[in-house]
Amino acid sequence: IRVIYSGANNFDNKTENGYDIASSREISVLEKIDVAYVVSQDKYYTSLQDAYDDTENTDTIKIIHDTSISGITESLEIEEGKNITIDLNGYNVIASNNNTIINNGTLTLKDSTRVDEEENIINGSFINGANTILTNNGVCTIEGGTYGLTLGGSSNAYYNLIANTGDLTINDGTFYANAAYSIIINNNAGDITINGGDLYTNSNSGIIVHTENGDVTINNGELACNSTDSRAINNVSGKLAITGGTITTSNDRYNYAIYNTETEKTIDIIEGSVTNHIYNASTGAINIGKVEID
Length: 294
Fold this sequence. Notes:
This protein is mainly beta. It is 2% helix and 48% strand. It has 1 helix and 33 strands. The strands form 4 sheets. The protein has a 20-stranded mixed beta sheet that branches. The chain has a 9-stranded parallel beta sheet with strand order 7-10-15-18-21-24-27-30-32. A hairpin with a 4-residue loop joins β3 and β4. The longest helix has 6 residues, at 48-53. The N and C termini lie far apart (62 Å). The model is unreliable at 1-24 (pLDDT under 50).
């Protein structure tokens, strides 16, 4: 509650809200705003965590107002056995805590968009400065929305937009990292399938860093890395298959669309478009099919 007054400050409790508004006094009561709606309960909530706490095992949470999540807020953890959809619904979630969402169950992220008073289509977004928005240990499907990192790390501390050890599928959406030493997806022994969407970065760290065993499959989508000394896909270990889509880096001798250090499993580039270098820094095999390489 914020109270601005001049003169005497003698309030009584006779009014409905417990305050008597007299002349020469201004009283503002600051109330929490509902930011989320749970479909199964047909109820509104003032935080994403409160909404999740009231979900059924299979449920949908809709964001209904722009909201922020502070740096001291604990992670929203999707439990094993839960099947939750979070619909950005055309609103913005601005987070500053690390591991904003930890998924151990089944999670779908989508954006139904909305139309404002001037009939403009408004897209939703989930943005963090320098911390991981999603740590996926379960099954996660992203159907749409914008997801981004706005700050950069250092050579000793990389920032990840998404950290994956589970099964991650991207069907649509926009994903970006705007500063150095930032990775859009750090895949650690998980599986990734990209069927669409735009993934771009101005970071020298890359779009996908595939660090341990697991499969990365790119069927479609646009991946663009616009920085010097960059690797759009850095395949340290694990299998990589590209059957479509576009992968580009800026034209520099030290920029690589695909950089491979895997020694045992093969990289299959079957179809698609690759701009700039494919570099094999190991004894692993790279099979190239009907691919447009510039």
